[in-house]
Design a protein that fits this description.
This protein is an alpha+beta fold. It has helices at 4-7, 126-129, 147-155, 160-163, 264-283, 304-316, and strands at residues 11-15, 24-28, 31-38, 41-46, 60-62, 65-67, 74-75, 81-83, 101-107, 110-114, 134-143, 181-184, 187-190, 193-197, 207-217, 220-226, 233-244, 247-256. It has 2 domains: 4-114, Rieske Iron-sulfur Protein, CATH 2.102.10.10; 126-316, Naphthalene 1,2-dioxygenase Alpha Subunit, Chain A, domain 1, CATH 3.90.380.10. Strands 11, 12, 13, 14, 15, 16, 17 and 18 form an 8-stranded antiparallel sheet that branches. Strands 1-10-9-4-3-2 form a 6-stranded antiparallel sheet, with no helix packed on it. It binds FE2/S2 (inorganic) cluster and cobalt (II) ion. GO terms for molecular function: dioxygenase activity.
Length: 323
């Protein structure tokens, strides 16, 4: 799963809280990585000891160093091998004794890795850093589909009245209010879309709201719901971890600038329920790759955000999950 664009980007791996005392194996873009925590923070290496290829994630952390389970070689958080127990006393450790280190960042409650370790820009997220919103982490949700199909489903306004009938739309109001997609430098976003929601949060009350969508990164997008009359705002960040062929994991952040009257668990459960409605659709779409040839599927006017997303993927040169 070589995709240089994604390897050059920050990819979500897991929640920060998932990394405990024991090193943790994760798979990102087909690569086995190990995450471990020491006093300096969380670090990511290839999950492979250069001695005999053992998985470092089966080892442990001792004195801030990652210890291989097989013959006890130790690595510091830069990846330098600092101890080879079998080496006769006084013998220098070879410079080549190095673990393969990835860029690793803790942000917004998640761990992100940069497989090419070239420290690209990271997208700002005011909802978490600005202090105005209550934030609830969502996921992991495994999906047997390629990431761009999952992202496009999230950006798709037309399905709400059908797949999420009774919650995010009703079938007798299927027409989507007109909207535009604005592309500025790296930013792609829609003008507000007027949407009728029969029961947007499970409280039984219908609402007319504005939806805005924004594409932040190839596999990271944001949705904002605003109520025009009272200034309440809710955003959902969706970000996808490409695991292996047809294996992806979705994560998200739900942010609210108002009192929802729901616990974190209730908010997550509602989102899980909505996502479970999308999952069989996305897992059965063909082709699995998102067609970047704009003539490949039949599009309507309301699909213009999907089209903009496809064009953006084409421009960035993403190869994974597109054709
Ligand atoms: Fe890791 Fe031998 S394989 S120390
Ligand atoms: Co949906």
């Amino acid at each position: 799963m070589k995709d240089e664009v994604l390897r050059n980007d920050w990819i979500v791996v897991c929640k920060e809280e998932d990394v405990k005392e024991q090193p943790l194996q994760q798979i990102v873009l087909g690569e086995r990585i190990v995450l471990f925590r020491n006093r300096k923070g969380i670090h990511a290496f290839k999950d492979l000891c250069i001695h005999r290829g053992a998985a470092l994630s089966l080892g442990c952390v001792k004195d801030d160093q990652l210890v291989c389970p097989y013959h006890g070689w130790q690595y510091d958080d830069e990846g330098h091998c600092t101890k080879i127990p079998q080496l006769p006393e006084g013998k220098q450790i070879s410079q080549k004794a190095q673990a393969f280190k990835y860029g690793c960042k803790v942000a917004y409650g998640f761990i992100w890795v940069n497989l090419n370790n070239n420290n690209p820009d990271f997208f700002p997220y005011e909802e978490v850093t600005g202090g105005e919103f209550r934030n609830v982490l969502w996921g992991p949700q495994s999906v047997e589909a390629k990431p761009p199909r999952i992202v496009e489903n999230f950006l798709d306004v037309g399905h709400l009245a059908f797949v999420h009938e009774g919650y995010l739309g009703v079938q007798d109001k299927p027409v989507i209010g007109d909207y535009r997609v604005i592309t500025e430098d790296e930013r792609i976003y829609t003008t507000p879309i007027d949407v009728f929601q029969p029961d947007p949060d499970g409280s039984g009350q219908s609402k007319n709201v504005y939806y805005t969508y924004e594409v932040l990164r190839p596999l990271t997008v944001r949705f904002t719901k605003e109520e025009p009359n009272n200034g309440t705002k809710m955003t959902i960040l969706l970000t996808i971890k490409p695991v292996e062929e047809l294996k992806s994991v979705a994560y998200g952040i739900l942010s609210f600038n108002y009192e929802t009257g729901q616990t974190d668990e209730e908010i997550v459960a509602f989102q899980d329920m909505i996502f479970a409605q999308d999952k069989p659709i996305v897992e059965n779409q063909k082709p699995e790759e998102l067609p970047l040839d704009l003539q490949a599927e039949l599009s309507l006017k309301f699909d213009r955000l999907s089209i903009a997303y496809r064009q953006y993927l084409k421009k960035t040169g993403v190869t994974l999950g597109v054709e």
